[in-house]
């Protein structure tokens, strides 16, 4: 991976990757009534991919980002080295917006994130299922199990209210709305899934956060403990 900072606000990177993935049967007994795993997926695949990322960062505030926006695009081209079955692209567009609440100190702010991901097959080939976008993780639909929803596209909206507890810590209230889809015409208001919760973030001047969060959904609840970049 090669990265180049063009200015204080603009960053670009280029990458080339090799992935070898072997899929086998699990030793764990399936849950009662669960569908069997497709036998066609049990194989080994080698993939080569190359791509580029572009970041425009106009967010402001240290250590707390309290205003401005950030825009990220990511494009990856991939092809199978094992056979001729897979040839596809993955792309992502992400927008972050940071809004101080009027009439209150700047440290009390809203953070909004929207993320679109899509996998598209090329030349009549296929996309391996494990390269499809998914929702259900510590960064998107936080109240659902890992990779709970998966399809060729995903759309996510997140809104957080961040309230300062100490100079290095925030209390956070959040709500996530997301759905997966096959074609853009499949996107519908009624198909969004909701998760919500609260947490505590220990923040650093380098843009990282130590996150402890409690997340809930109609299916489950989760406790998240993670160190990650703070969007």
Structural commentary:
The protein is mainly β and 231 residues long. Helix content is 0%, strand content 57%. It contains no helices and 13 strands. Strand 4 (68-80) and strand 5 (87-100) form a beta hairpin. The radius of gyration is 20 Å and the shape is globular.
In a few lines, what is going on in this structure?
This protein has strands at residues 2-5, 10-22, 44-57, 68-80, 87-100, 109-121, 134-135, 149-150, 153-166, 169-181, 193-203, 208-216, 221-229. With 231 residues, the protein is mainly beta.
Primary descriptors:
231 residues, mainly beta, 13 strands
Quick one: how many beta strands? 13
SS field, number of helical segments: 0
Low-confidence stretches: none
Calculate the terminal CA-CA distance, rounded to whole Å: 22 Å
Q: How would you summarize the topology of this molecule?
A:
Elements (H helix, E strand, L loop, with lengths): L1 E4 L4 E13 L21 E14 L10 E13 L6 E14 L8 E13 L12 E2 L13 E2 L2 E14 L2 E13 L11 E11 L4 E9 L4 E9 L2
Antiparallel strand pairs: 1-2, 2-3, 3-4, 4-5, 5-6, 6-9, 7-8, 9-10, 10-11, 11-12, 12-13
